[in-house]
Write a structure and sequence with these properties.
148 residues, OB fold (Dihydrolipoamide Acetyltransferase, E2P), seven-stranded mixed beta sheet, 2 helices
Length: 148
């Protein structure tokens, strides 16, 4: 007993049960360490499960440096790997996905390089931190880089 199922969100499992689709390296650009932009998309796709340092609007010098390193490493990880993208519902209130009220209008997903979640690689190398959200909301975004 005690098992709870969520029939309205069958693809919400964070453990790779959604549909992974092959993604050619030529079909997206890398915005920063945790965001890509698919060709033709108006907004980026936030890679979920981790938070990388900001490279575009860093809050301190350490974050600026780490943010550039995280972005550079993500570019390396996808350069010659077999890539797959799994789109995942964003952790937002109902009916807000795709609007500025949800993740700045970005979609959400996981990017795999040779079968491994790129977020897990960045975390293991100290270039990102775990960031796991609930179904409709996220905890405060972890940004340990600028803590003095």
């Amino acid at each position: 007993g005690g098992h709870i199922s969520w029939p309205s969100m069958p693809s919400f499992a964070r453990s790779g049960t959604g549909d992974r689709v092959a993604l050619a390296r030529s079909k997206f650009t890398i915005t920063d360490g945790d965001t890509i932009r698919l060709d033709g998309a108006a907004k980026g796709t936030r890679l979920v499960g981790f938070n990388a340092p900001e490279s575009i609007e860093p809050r301190c010098a350490v974050e600026a440096d780490l943010g550039q390193r995280a972005k550079k490493r993500l570019i390396e990880l996808v350069a010659s790997a077999k890539l797959e993208l799994e789109m995942i519902p964003c952790s937002c209130p109902a009916n807000t996905e795709g609007t500025d009220r949800c993740n700045y209008g970005r979609s959400c997903g996981s990017l795999f390089a040779n079968g491994q979640d790129v977020g897990d690689v960045l975390i293991s190398e100290g270039l990102a931190v775990p960031f796991v959200c609930g179904a409709t909301s996220c905890p405060p975004t972890p940004r340990p880089w600028c803590a003095s």
